[in-house]
Amino acid sequence: xxxxxxxxxxxxxxxxxxxxxxxxxxxxxxxxxxxxxxxxxxxxxxxxxxxxxxxxxxxxxxxxxxxxxxxxxxxxxxxxxxxxxxxxxxxxxxxxxxxxxxxxxxxxxxxxxxxxxxxxxxxxxxxxxxxxxxxxxxxxxxxxxxxxxxxxxxxxxxxxxxxxxxxxxxxxxxxxxxxxxxxxxxxxxxxxxxxxxxxxxxxxxxxxxxxxxxxxxxxxxxxxxxxxxxxxxxxxxxxxxxxxxxxxxxxxxxxxxxxxxxxxxxxxxxxxxxxxxxxxxxxxxxxxxxxxxxxxxxxxxxxxxxxxxxxxxxxxxxxxx
Amino acid sequence: xxxxxxxxxxxxxxxxxxxxxxxxxxxxxxxxxxxxxxxxxxxxxxxxxxxxxxxxxxxxxxxxxxxxxxxxxxxxxxxxxxxxxxxxxxxxxxxxxxxxxxxxxxxxxxxxxxxxxxxxxxxxxxxxxxxxxxxxxxxxxxxxxxxxxxxxxxxxxxxxxxxxxxxxxxxxxxxxxxxxxxxxxxxxxxxxxxxxxxxxxxxxxxxxxxxxxxxxxxxxxxxxxxxxxxxxxxxxxxxxxxxxxxxxxxxx
Lengths: 321, 252
Prior knowledge:
Number of domains of chain A: 2
CATH class of the largest domain in chain A: Alpha Beta
Oligomer: heterodimer
Subcellular location (chain B): Membrane
Shape of chain B: elongated
Distance between the termini of chain B: 36 Å
Structural class of chain B: mainly alpha
GO molecular function, one term (chain B): ABC-type transporter activity
Order of helices and strands of chain A: HEEEHEEHHHEHEHEEHEHEEHEH
Largest sheet of chain B: none
Transmembrane segments (chain B): 40-60, 72-93, 114-141, 147-172, 184-207, 227-246
Largest sheet of chain A: 6 strands, mixed
Number of strands of chain A: 13
Structural class of chain A: alpha/beta
Helix content of chain A: 25-40%
Protein name (chain B): ABC-2 type transport system permease protein
CATH superfamily of the largest domain in chain A: P-loop containing nucleotide triphosphate hydrolases
Number of strands of chain B: 0
CATH topology of the largest domain in chain A: Rossmann fold
Number of helices of chain A: 11
Domain ABC-2 type transporter transmembrane (chain B): 27-199
Strand content of chain B: under 5%
Helix content of chain B: over 70%
């Protein structure tokens, strides 16, 4: 039995267990464009690592190199201690490629049976089909499944062989909220059963909810890493007071009235943010300034920085072309 | 919230047996081909209709015995339909829908991915040939049994050669382009590639279609070994296409 206790015991005995995935100095170029630029990361065994980054940051390229679909131009990658292309590795990992994959004319259960036939101790395909809510589409060919259904079938294919490590590339893309919640529950169950998970996402709440470790990447480089708690709560003065009001208010008077070290800005249209050590005096200063301006501060909240703030601070607030 | 009993996903990895994987993959390939209406039209209905037409109507000149000659040529056509055109189109769309990547990510070894497709294609060709042969016998075909081993050998060789050509086409280009080209090439080979008619132009004999039709005619009609020339042409095309396809075939 591989309960949590055993695993923790194992970790204590051996302080440096073999990482599930170990990437160092990874470089991948497509022509003149450098998609991955000296990336390092370590995914711990039995933990969930989220690779978080905007579109085009190099997440999929990194994962596909780990899966053995692409070759690296430089750097080293070890997956469960083996080179990514090693034939001995593939039965041990489960892969959910971005956008899924299946014969256009095949039915969900036939596809899952085929993948199950490749495994020594597969899960029950019928059960997994039901769990993933595909029981209502048993006669539908793959090409007529919705994007979310194709994604769920792909997830089933990744899990059917009882792998030690699963790669999930944007696992909830194109899914409705119920299906997303189900995928989160599945990932949580995988972790509890000792499966290592490496997933990519650009959804902050997904990373914050699921991940033990988050690696934020941008333009092929790691810009921050740590647990969600470490990334969001680093300093006591790293707090925010947010409120909504009429857009375009002149902030110079408020700025002058606030204590040293606090900054105020209009983060988005009509969305104001005061950053620094927020105490009751600061809240009072802000509300009285609002009263002077004759505006009502709506949705006034005090909070620590969210992962989204960390992410946007690191990767920029501008839309990329 | 969905909860799963502890231990549901406890790792127990391992590769399935090679025999079971090969069987499952080949069966899937054959089943999907036979379930696809357009594929059945191309691989079964059209060859069957042409066999009947060539045997009973004397519009197209055909050496005697007429039914025997027609049977040999339609065997060749059936192999080209299924192993080349059908395989190319299926591969083009399989790539579009990401199945090669999906299967490559499973424990299925790469060589088995090829072997499964080959076995699936051989199963479909065997069914086509049985159906066509029974029809030909009904139409009055007299098969010299001494030719059986040669016919079987040629069917396998033809399937491999045209299968390699089909993979070469379907593995490299976009699905829509594959669809158009595979059908056009099929039609051209049928009309002027030495399949329906013997074309008295030198270079046509160097086409795999003419070589297969000619070799099959020798063994199906006369029950003797095919000439070394047509067999050499088939092998050369197959080897060249296979070698090229291993470089050009992409998973997606």
